[in-house]
Design goal:
By secondary structure, the protein is α+β, with helices and mostly antiparallel strands. The protein has a domain of 131 residues: NADH Oxidase, CATH 3.40.109. It is 40% helix and 12% strand. Strands 1, 2, 3, 4, 5 and 6 form a 6-stranded antiparallel beta sheet that branches. 29% of the residues are buried. The mean pLDDT is 96. The protein binds flavin mononucleotide (FMN). The site of flavin mononucleotide (FMN) has 12 residues, from helix 4.
Amino acid sequence: MPATLPLSPDELLSTTRAVRKRLDFERPVSDDLVRECVDLAMQSPSGSNNMTMQFVVVRDAEKRRAIGEVYRQCYGIYQSLDGVYIRSIDKGDDVANAQQQRSADSADYLGEHMGEAPVLIIPCTVGARLDGTPAMMAASMAANVMPAMWSFMLAARARGLGTCWTTIHLMMEQAVADIVGIPFDQVQQVCLSPLAYTKGTDFKPASRPPADSIIHWDQW
Ligand SMILES: Cc1cc2nc3c(=O)[nH]c(=O)nc-3n(C[C@H](O)[C@H](O)[C@H](O)COP(=O)(O)O)c2cc1C
């Protein structure tokens, strides 16, 4: 059995955070650990049991640097999008706004340092692009890999590794496709995540809206 942190299922689910400033860029991550996380990710569901998910695992330093530069450029565009950029979103009260600004500091940090993570993970779905695809197909294609990637992130957290779901590079998805040879016309990237050991393993549940504020019992 691999060495995992002593976390209950609920602790694992409630403490798998977007890790950015606490990524340890100096400590290498073994290929075997990545394989374990992907093996667990492959237990996730897929439409028609079709398993169209693929994981591009980038360890090469020059490719990571190049992807990090694409991410940095996209992040600059994102920062100019008022109402979209994490820092520009008003959460309605002082406590939540202070938390939002801390999250923005963390996101800004990753904007500058993505390429320094020892491993970058690009989960993809194969067969078609989502652009212009009818909703039923698009939702199915995306969900063939997104639950798998979340399982990967949970498996990583259980092993003392941190991840962060990011989508900003999709503004320049083709540039990243070209760096690692992804056939852009047939393969859709759904996110980009750093993978690194975390500095410390203690993470806390985040403040979230209570269930009854988002459940629509029997009727929207
Ligand atoms: C669809 C999606 C896109 C995201 N894109 C980015 C991103 O491009 N850059 C980033 O730093 N974080 C990104 N995040 C992470 C969120 O900012 C993060 O999940 C949120 O602030 C809550 O933080 P927590 O996951 O630690 O609770 C994204 C998350 C999701 C689900």
